[in-house]
Design brief:
Layout (H helix, E strand, L loop, with lengths): L26 E7 L7 H8 L8 E7 L4 H9 L5 E5 L5 H14 L4 E5 L11 H5 L2 E4 L5 H10 L8 E3 L17 H6 L3 E2 L2 E3 L15 E3 L2 H13 L4 E4 L8 H13 L6 E6 L6 H7 L7 E8 L3 H6 L6 H14 L3 E8 L6 H12 L5 E6 L11 H4 L3 E2 L7 E3 L5 H19 L6 H7 L4 H16 L7 H15 L4 H12 L10 H9 L1
Parallel strand pairs: 1-2, 1-3, 3-4, 4-5, 5-6, 7-10, 10-11, 11-12, 12-13, 13-14
Antiparallel strand pairs: 8-9, 15-16
Helix pairs in contact: 2-3, 8-9, 14-16, 17-18
Length: about 500
């Protein structure tokens, strides 16, 4: 295969409303996405690498809100000989139901599963028991080889296919499999590399200690074709985009030279490894053009050591300050609750340290035990207990008990509603003043809302505003008129929001 080869045809169809038989397509590639706007990058790789079988394959994508029975009906309407399913932590339960239905009503259909959720610890699962074959790891080429055997009547004796990582020079790029509808309505995922040089024990990338790169000329040519077709939003899934400065500079210059209004690039970066030349290039992008996902995870040195994470935190803070003050990038920073060696107090200290750097978004995530990751070695040494059900979140540790963990989960949810939503930009500084630290302020606000409602979802914006108002009034850190005027200004700062906040109107009538 020629390095960077691209397919010249595609057959793609989508979920609900397309339950019609597609004659002459014995291979159906499918998955269940978390939501419609997501696209399955993996399925497009599988299709692109089918070679001569591409014309005999169709891609079908579904969303989590669709019943398993409807999904199975749509898949069987194609009358496929082979169904390949991408399995992830968010869809393993419904996909198990779909496969069980398919094998019950059409047992002769060959079901092949693959993806990160079934590449490790699959033995004994209902899904593996129901499926015919499992392709472990990167299946770009392995699935195609299996499909050829099956369609030629050469059914392998082994149910599990475990191939080494493919040479990326042999992998056909999938970008021509994006439809025009994908490019205009959904997320366009791209990647210039695979793997990660770091060994963070909570991450599947820790199982591979090297980075493999796609040939850059072929990759950039594919990006040009996407732009020529109208693509404006590019989400890079590279685990460490900024690993090699010279390569990063070439990619950034490519997009800068071709920048068009409405474009947006998303990168996941290691903030302490941003070279000055890369920082200078990032500063040249227009405001809002970059969305940078910044891996912080923890400021606690003991926790970093426990999970084998190497990060220069002083350099991280220095570069984050540059990104916030010298670029127009939107910064999305990650913190993890429940790491070994991290207490509730030390997490709070790290949270305060991060929020002082003012990233536009902070994702407070709960530690998950992804199958196959080395984080499991801490189940005894740090008494980590994980939920047996997806997404396998940590329930407690030796330093954070179950009640505290539940409290921090609510903290993460309410923080997202108030801070990451961007709905209360002027009122949140009042909240910070109500308590000694931002962490303590959000924690006590979340305790207040939980006590009042017993829920963490389905809050209208007006209700969130009322809870914040009442909490701040009780705190007494600012005059009631200042609190009311500030929250009212936040609520009405966006055009079209004309309804009145009833609790403020009642206050004015009472005065």
């Amino acid at each position: 295969m020629t390095c960077g080869l691209r397919p010249t045809a595609r057959v793609v169809s989508y979920g609900r409303g397309s339950v019609r038989a597609l004659q002459g397509h014995p291979i159906t590639l499918t998955t269940i996405n978390a939501r419609y706007t997501h696209t399955s990058f993996g399925l497009r790789y599988l299709w692109a690498n089918l070679g001569a079988l591409r014309e005999q394959a169709v891609v079908r994508e579904f969303a989590l809100n669709q019943p398993a029975g409807e999904i199975a009906e749509a898949l069987l309407a194609d009358d496929p000989k082979i169904i390949g399913l991408g399995v992830y932590i968010w869809n393993v339960a419904p996909i198990t139901q779909v496969v069980q239905i398919i094998k019950a009503v059409r047992p002769e259909t060959v079901v092949v599963i693959g993806g990160p959720e079934v590449s490790y610890e699959y033995e004994g699962t209902e899904l593996f028991a129901a499926a015919d074959f499992l392709v472990r790891g990167e299946g770009d080429i392995a699935f195609a080889e299996l499909a050829v055997k099956l369609l030629n009547g050469r059914r392998p004796a082994e149910r599990v296919v475990s191939e080494p990582h493919p040479d990326l020079c042999r992998v056909a790029l999938p970008y021509d499999a994006y439809t025009d509808k994908d490019l205009s309505q959904r997320i366009t995922y791209v990647e210039a590399s695979r793997g990660c040089p770091f060994s963070c024990e909570f991450c599947l990338s820790s199982l591979e200690d090297r980075v493999r790169e796609f040939p850059l000329d072929a990759f950039l040519a594919a990006m040009q074709r996407l732009m020529d077709r109208g693509a404006r939003n590019f989400t890079f899934v590279d685990r460490t985009f900024n690993l090699r400065a010279q390569r990063v500079e070439r990619i950034l210059r490519f997009f800068l030279d071709r920048w068009r209004e409405g474009m947006r690039l998303h990168f996941e970066i290691m903030p302490d490894r941003l070279a000055p030349s890369v920082l200078d290039l990032l500063a040249q992008f227009p405001p809002g053009g970059l969305h940078l996902e910044v891996g912080i995870q923890t400021f606690n040195v003991e926790a970093q050591t426990a999970i084998s994470r190497r990060q220069d935190m002083a350099k991280t803070e220095q570069n984050l300050k540059f990104l916030r003050t010298r670029t127009g990038a939107t910064i999305h920073a990650d913190l993890i609750v429940g790491l070994p060696g991290e207490s509730m107090e030390s997490f709070g200290e790290g949270f305060n340290r991060l929020i002082a750097l003012a990233p536009q978004e902070i994702q407070v995530g709960i530690l998950k035990r992804l199958k196959g990751t080395p984080i499991t070695r801490h189940t005894e040494t740090h008494e980590l207990a994980f939920s047996p059900q997806p997404p396998y979140e940590v329930l407690q540790t030796d330093l954070i008990d179950y009640a505290q963990m539940q409290r921090l989960k609510r903290f993460a949810r309410y923080f997202d509603l108030y801070y990451n939503s961007g709905n209360f930009p002027k009122a949140l500084p009042l909240l910070w003043r109500s308590r000694p630290t931002a962490f303590r302020a959000i924690l006590e606000l979340s305790d207040y809302i939980w006590t009042a409602t017993g829920r963490t979802h389905e809050f209208p914006l007006a209700q969130l505003a009322e809870y914040l108002y009442t909490f701040l009034i009780q705190a007494g850190s600012d005059a009631p008129d200042i609190i009311a005027d500030t929250i009212n200004a936040d609520f009405h700062r966006l055009p079209g929001r004309k309804d009145r906040l009833r609790f403020l109107a009642q206050r004015m009538r009472g005065s």
